[in-house]
Specification:
This protein is α/β, with parallel strands linked by helices. 26% of the residues lie in helices and 26% in strands. Strands 3-1-2-6-5-7-4 form a seven-stranded mixed sheet. The two termini are 26 Å apart. The C terminus is likely disordered.
Length: 222
């Protein structure tokens, strides 16, 4: 996962090794695949790892996607991640394919105008999803689609957007307002459309549903 530890720390070393391995595995695919690209990362966790309380999926994607783009010169319009208890993990690059709106238990379409680095950005999202109550159960499947202007670095939107989804994800007792229970997200899809006329406005489509426990198995092809 992303590490904010000091340079040379064990966390930084592990994060760098993960990025290097993943980039080595899919860099050739990223360069040779034509058209808009999608990335899929399936994270296999040891059986003793808490599945719903840590190992946030955006913390795996955030360091990987910008580095892969920098190393290959190819951007991504759709990135996916899952986590399960499993012995192996996998990563793949493939063409991005448009699909119909997936809908979900919660369907919110919100608009923001503030910088994503500010509290106001989170507040604008929070104030437009007040009809939500935390989804039942443990695991959550979440998809977020962004419509942004051409100069927006859209990975910078992932974390603050998810932080603002407390009405959907809930909060642990005593947690701050922006500490939503994002560890609950076991299936995450993040998508981007560039609109040259968007300016500083960001449109965000949020789709969320509970994940059935029976589906929380990670199976890789042999």
């Amino acid at each position: 996962m992303a590490s904010w530890d000091a340079a040379g720390s064990r966390g930084q070393a592990r994060s760098s090794a993960f990025i290097d391995d993943a980039c080595t595995a899919v860099a050739e695919q990223a360069v040779s695949t034509s058209g808009p690209l999608a990335l899929r990362l399936d994270v296999g966790l040891v059986d003793t790892a808490p599945l719903y309380a840590s190992h946030d999926l955006d913390n795996y994607l955030f360091p990987l996607v910008p580095k892969l783009t920098s190393r290959t010169g190819r951007g991504f319009v759709s990135v996916w991640a899952t986590k399960r208890h499993a012995a192996t993990s996998s990563v793949a690059v493939c063409p991005a394919v448009p699909v119909d709106d997936p809908a979900g238990t919660y369907v919110f379409d919100v608009t923001t105008t503030a910088s994503a680095s500010t509290r106001a950005y989170k507040e604008q999202i929070r104030d437009q999803i007040t009809t939500g109550i935390p989804l039942p159960g443990d695991g959550v499947a979440l998809q977020i689609a962004f419509v942004v202007g051409p100069h927006r670095a859209w990975p910078n939107l992932w974390k603050p957007t998810i932080d603002a989804l407390g009405a959907i994800l809930g909060h642990d007792d005593g947690a701050g307002e922006w500490n939503a229970r994002d560890g609950r997200i076991t299936d995450l899809g993040l998508h981007c459309v560039v609109d040259p006329t968007a300016g500083s406005v960001i449109r965000v489509a949020i789709r969320a549903s509970p994940v059935r426990p029976a589906s929380l198995r990670l199976v890789h092809p042999r």
